[in-house]
Amino acid sequence: MSDIKKIKDEFINKLKEDLDLNSVNQIKTDLFGKNGKISNEFKKLGSVSAEDRKKFASDLNLIKDELQIAISNKIKDIEIKEINLKLQNEKIDVTLPERSFFQGKIHPVSQVIDEISSIFSEIGFNVEEGPDVENEYNNFTALNTPDNHPARDMHDTFYLDVNKEYLLRTHTSPVQVRTMLKGKPPFKIIAPGRTYRSDSDQTHAPMFHQVEGLHIDKNINMGHLKGCLNYFIKEFFEVDKIKMRFRPSHFPFTEPSAEVDIGYKIKDEKIVIGEGDKWLEILGCGMVHPNVLRNVKVDPSKYQGYAFGIGIDRLAMLKYGINDLRSFFETDYRWLNHFGFDPLDVPSSYRGLSR
Amino acid sequence: MKFTIDWLKEHLDTNYDDNKIVNKLTDIGLEVESFQSQLSELDNFIVAKILNAEKHPNADRLKVCDVDIGKNEVVKVVCGAANAKKNLLTIYAPPGSIIPKNQMKLSITKIRGVTSYGMLCSESELNLSNESEGITELSSKKYNNQVGKKYFKNNTSKVIDLSITPNRADCLGVRGIARDLAAAGTGKLKKLALKNIKNSGPQKINIKITKEKNQGCLAFGSCLIKGVKNTESPKWLKDKIITLGQKPISAIVDITNYVMIDLNRPLHAYDADKIDKGIIVRNSKKGETFKALDNENYSLKEDMCVISDNSGVLGLGGIIGGIRSGTEFNTKNILLESAYFDPRSIRKTSKLLNIDTDAKYRFERGIDPESIQLGLLKAAELIKKICGGEISKIDIKTNENFKKNQIKFYIPFFEKITGFKVSDKEIVKILTDLGFKIKKQKNLLKLSVPTWRPDIIQSIDIVEEIVRIKGYDQIKIEEPEKAKLKPTLNKQQKLFHFLQRSIASKGYLETITWSFTDSKINQLFNGNKSETKIVNPISSDLDVLRNSIFSNLIVYLKNNLDRGFKDISLFEIGPIFSGHKPGDQQIAIAALRSGKVSRLNWLEKERVVDLFDAKRDVIQSLSEAGFDQSKLFIDDKTPDYFHPGKSGAIYLNKNEDKPAAYFGEIHPNIIKKLDIKTETLAIFEIYIDNIKKTEKKLKDQKSKYKYSDYQKSERDFAFVLDKNFKVQDLTKVISEIDKNLIKSIKVFDIYEGENIPEDKKSIALNVTIQSSEKTLTDEDLEKINKLIISTVENKTGAKLRS
After folding, report:
1. How far apart are alpha carbons A192 and A210 in whole angstroms?
2. Per-window interface: A 264-293 vs B, CB < 8 A
3. Does B344 touch chain A (CB under 8 A)?
4. Degrees, nearest 5: CA angle B618-B622-B626
5. SS3 for B691?
6. Is residue B69 a contact partner of residue B75, using CB atoms and an 8 Å limit?
């Protein structure tokens, strides 16, 4: 008994020393290896007298367990120490830059088109499109602007053939014609897209964007037109109140026609929409001319309704404080980064039009 | 259309103040562009105070004055006046002003070594009196608070400038504007006070309108005024002409211009003695020429409406007169013309000859045919008053009788269109004030349209008249209904918007460039599409419709590189064109990346962008948009602006005949030709119209969820194949061996070089094998293993690399 007690005390003490993993493993071998001290004690078991054997065996097992636990604890201690040491060496300067990424952006015109589509979607409009290259009939004649009409002079048209039969559309209104010719009323559409006029200075670009609106049904009157635009402008500028003014005007394809002004003021060099006593023209509209309806095979004695055309670039400038129209189309990396929108910012009614 | 309030009040009796009149004009559809005094040269002269006056260092008689010119500004002025002294109030003229007496323009000058900013003025220099001794002395009592203010009150009356829409010909005359205002309740339209002029007998010059097809003149009125003395216009008339922004010429010309603006009635005055035996109004013959009043020689085409005499063309009717018969200061006898020309004829001729005049502008919009006599009377009366002379009877030749437009208007139609009601009584009053003759039968109005309103043809025109006079603010707001007739976007539109944001989310900046481009650059990217020229381009470097977006994108990329940016990713989504007819276009996405990935990065090794960056961006975007990546098929046929060896086409599946996209590097020749300073350019193009989305909604596309929990095994293979053999074909062969067992194939190495024959390459693959029915045994795995090797070797001629 005293032998094994001695062994135990000796090794328990040994394990208290500052050891590395190898030394502990050596101890393990010294005790439990083939010729280990404890293994050898077990071998003695056969030669112990029968009356002592039971006690000896039980003592030996206790000591064996005690030593094994001590060893495994020691190993755990060492491992923890080693990890702690390793962690200390792995300390890194986390203020170093992350891996590089490129942030893409959506052009403000595209963003505003999505905003507009989202707003009109809420009040039941669907999106239609038409080609950029149009024929003279759809762009002018069908829209009650015959060849000898002075209103044609107001559109500086790009022509694609000398007979002036094909052209770049000067407005999105030909989409009205195409939509009504291919379908049956009621119609409730918007048509955003590129438009072209051969005009270029600070405030005019040879290409710009418009959104056309058209609502034709049995009893659509000027009150509906006013309500629709009132709703749109309020939603678009994300203000509770707007000042809006309808002013009589003339477009060959609508009658009565109106231009719409919104009230604004300048505060801290920024434009504030909805207050103030200045007026800004933002769109043209009116009741679709019966001649147009006849041209697209819609019976004006049964159906009537309104149409409007809004300059998209202009709206984007007003809402997001962009001063120069030409900058929209110059692809300046700095400008795109500054005025562009994150692609995850999809305008919608439930998440809000904009952040 | 310019005029003054005073001029307006010659036709309108009103108590409204100027601002109310201006607002009313806008309210009834006559948009006021501006309302301001005409700038006067005298505006520059300012009340100033001498703060200090010291002797000039280099001249005994000159003084150097510090002059307070208001707004906390003090300037130095050198002055020779004896009376210039401290605290004197006087009149200061800044550099740039013109001195009324001698019309001298002041500039900043050095006088004996001292710089003088402007001048202090004497009364004589300002034409105030003949007092030239010393500078003006202003009483301190009256002017002490006026320092910095204008000395001269601007007495020119304010000019209203209206932007008249093309339908309102009648408002190109002051009287028409007055009539509209009166109808809108802004006063009363005055009666025209025309005396009956005593005539000296019939108009003796013979006038003939030929009867022929396309005759553009429908009526020609005239009178002869004999024994006039043409002269400068009196002040009141000159002032009116100046108001219009024109220069007075002579009384006769000014009077015809005045009547044109006053009544919207263009007139023309001929020197009657220069007319060769009478006037013939006829169609021109091809090649006839004449010299017009703008000093240009015009060569005419056939069927233009000309006023001629026996010797040839005198002028273009309703557009411009000729030099040969023009009036001058020595003109004795005048033939005054007041005619009616067909708007179409006027427009056609002026377009062909590219002439724009005030008369043409009015005739092409439609002149009141019944104003012929009125115009002649008013002008003749003025000419007689100013130039003397004897007036003949008025002679009016007509080719056609004018019929007034008749419209049957049902009163309820107004409410149907506008959504609000106006009483019958008020409707009748508005229309009467606008000049309509009305017969009312219950709710039907039989309307006779005034001759000065050629734009009013049908009932809807009447609605517009009533609603604009009544006021658009009367229209009620109807809240919009939310019901939808159709989904907002169709499938293709959704795909457009999805891909737009998908590409941007890969780090590309979206841009928008012109749909037209420079033909020289377009040639590099036309992809064998035909060129579409713009007949009238805005500039020579934007002369064709773009066949590809790249021609613009690459130029803008170059601009940005020149600004010093290096690693740029740009894309545009928009139309490209293949012809000049509607429909010859499709929607494309074009994207490009320049420079390097991880440039100057402490963590990652930098590398140039390459075609596999572009390929990843396309395939990831297509995959995000819902297309099965495993079905995509790649080949290497691409347009010639791509690097021939480093580009590919992507088809949604092997059976598609049109590619959904191209990717690759741009052809090095293009980089060289356009002198683009970048390491490389990786580009891709997606053709949205070549991608037909399934009509199935997502809810119907989702298939049953199947998965396997049995053990997966991975096996690596390396095959040696012909160099030109495509990986795509190899993986296809393997995946088709057993679609149930072979779950995925990964290419992890391509090797050419030592130990491999020169015309061969080695492809190393990792194949994942898994059954959905059981755990595969070693024998099963060995079997599939062998099958893969034998199939590949048989079908591709490959050898397993040992």
Report:
1. 6
2. 287, 289-290
3. yes
4. 165
5. coil
6. yes
What are the chain A neighbours of B513 within 8 Å (beta carbons)?
Answer: 329, 331
Helix (H) or strand (E) holding B400: none
User: What's the CA gap between A272 and A238, in Å, rounded?
Assistant: 12
Q: What is the pLDDT of residue B154?
A: 67
> B253 pLDDT exceeds 70?
yes
CA angle B59, B62, B65 (to 5 degrees): 125
Question: What's the complex ipTM?
Answer: 0.87
Q: Report CA Rg, chain B.
A: 42
Integer Cα distance of A152 and A131 in angstroms: 20
**HSE of B567, CA atoms in CB hemisphere, 13 A:** 17
Minimal C-alpha gap between B373 and chain A (Å): 27
User: Would you say A306 and A321 are in contact if contact means Cβ atoms under 8 Å apart?
Assistant: no
Query: What tens digit of pLDDT does each residue of B746-788 get?
Result: 999 999 988 889 999 999 999 999 998 899 999 999 999 999 9
**Residue A142 clears pLDDT 90, i.e. is over it:** yes
B521 pLDDT above the threshold of 80 = yes
Structural domains of chain B in order of their starting residue, each with its CATH number = 2-38+157-189 (3.30.56.10), 41-146 (2.40.50.140), 207-398 (3.50.40.10), 406-474 (3.30.56.10), 491-690 (3.30.930.10), 708-800 (3.30.70.380)
- pLDDT band (50, 70, 90) for residue A177: very high
How far is Cα B66 from Cα B75, in angstroms, rounded to an integer? 6
The reported pTM is 0.84
Tokens of A239: 């203000």
Taking each helix axis from N to C terminus, what angle separates A21-32 and A2-16, rounded to the nearest 10 degrees? Answer: 170
Q: What is the CA radius of gyration of chain A?
A: 42
Distances in Å between the Cα of B577 and the Cα atoms of A132, A179, A315, B346 are 9, 22, 28, 37
Between the CA of residue B717 and those of A240, B455, B727, what are the distances in Å? 68, 84, 13
